[in-house]
Design goal:
Elements lengths: L2 H64 L1 E2 L14 E5 L15 E5 L4 E6 H4 L5 E3 L6 E4 L6 E4 L3 H19 L4 E23 L2 E26 L21 H12 L6 E7 L8 H13 L8 H10 E8 L1
Parallel strand pairs: 2-4, 5-7
Antiparallel strand pairs: 1-3, 2-6, 3-4, 6-7, 8-9, 8-11, 10-11
Helix pairs in contact: 5-6
């Protein structure tokens, strides 16, 4: 082989080697680029995941903090099981993204949670309010689903509906007259006698004895007194429909007694605990009153006291045939 051929062979080998090196370098660069892109994508993905995680954590935190109520939360009629609800026109919770499209929220304390609904959504729920829908706290009617009574009007309302029902009962049974009274018995402590001796100017020598006794007092409030001219049923008694007194055995017994043999009944007087038909227990009233105090709501200030008075009172029902 001559010198030229050798030189050409060397050049060719060098070119081939250079090509291989160039190809390797290109492959390496591409690999580095791919790896760099993958690292970048992984970093972006992790950053996105962290953002999502933080956003979800905040969302869950806001849900717990603000306790929003959405339509789907009460779609199954759960609201009708609530004894007390609060109505407001607006709350700052609406400015929070988590509470967007909410219809209200739960006001929570250690004792209970009070559903609070926005006025504009309540109007579409098919509920009725007495005396009218307003920003306040409402108590459910104990016998009519979906009807709510403003808390400060509750006991006046219950007085009216119970008087009306007992009057209708008397009329349906063909009574000549009916008298309904609320009797309240109270006990108070007083000092019945005082024996005191004291030397002028010497307090240390003063001595006194007091005798404490319990004093019973009664107050009677006439709720209604009605005289019927003649029976609209031509003397034939009819079974009235009971609502607020449907669990009162004395009223049910009276109806059955008159329906079986009216001529033997000339006058009956019943005495029933007023709280048995009031729809709210004293414990329940005290609980909601404490909640309203904690959330600084002005409604229902005298509700617990009214429940306490009702728990001590009796309904006297006198019917004459």
């Amino acid at each position: 082989m001559n010198e030229n051929n050798k030189l050409n062979g060397i050049l060719t080998s060098v070119k081939n080697a250079a090509g291989q090196v160039s190809e390797m370098a290109a492959n390496t660069a591409e690999g580095v680029k791919t790896t760099a892109l993958k690292i970048k994508d992984d970093a972006v993905a992790k950053q996105t995941a962290r953002k999502i995680s933080l956003a979800e954590k905040k969302r869950l935190g806001d849900l717990k903090k603000y306790s929003p109520i959405f339509k789907e939360d009460i779609a199954n009629g759960e609201l009708l099981l609530e004894r007390f609800i609060r109505i407001v026109n607006y709350d700052t919770r609406l400015e929070n993204e988590t509470c967007k499209d909410s219809i209200g929220f739960y006001e929570k304390t250690d004792d209970r949670k009070l559903p609070t609904l926005y006025t504009k959504y309540v109007r579409t729920m098919g509920l009725t309010f007495y005396p009218q829908l307003s920003e306040s706290v409402f108590v459910s009617d104990p016998c009519i689903p979906g009807k709510y009574i403003e808390i400060d009007e509750y006991y006046n309302y219950m007085k009216q509906v119970r008087v009306n029902e007992l009057t209708v009962v008397a009329q349906a049974l063909g009574a000549k007259s009916v008298n309904i009274e609320l009797r309240n018995s109270t006990k108070s402590l007083f000092n019945s006698s005082v024996d005191a001796k004291a030397k002028v100017g010497i307090i240390a020598d003063a001595s006194a004895s007091k005798e404490t006794k319990k004093k019973h007092s009664k107050s009677i409030e006439i709720w209604a007194s009605t005289i019927f001219k003649t029976s609209v049923f031509d003397g034939s008694p009819m079974a009235p429909k009971l609502l607020y007194f449907r669990n009162e055995s004395d009223i049910s017994a009276l109806i059955q007694m008159v329906l079986v043999n009216k001529s033997k009944v000339t006058e009956r007087k019943y005495s029933m605990k007023a709280s048995s038909s009031s729809g709210v227990s004293m414990t329940e009233a005290a609980s909601i009153s404490e909640v309203l105090k904690k959330i600084k709501c002005n409604a229902g200030a005298g509700f617990a006291k009214s429940a306490e008075n009702e728990s001590k009172a009796f309904l006297d029902y006198t019917i004459v045939f």
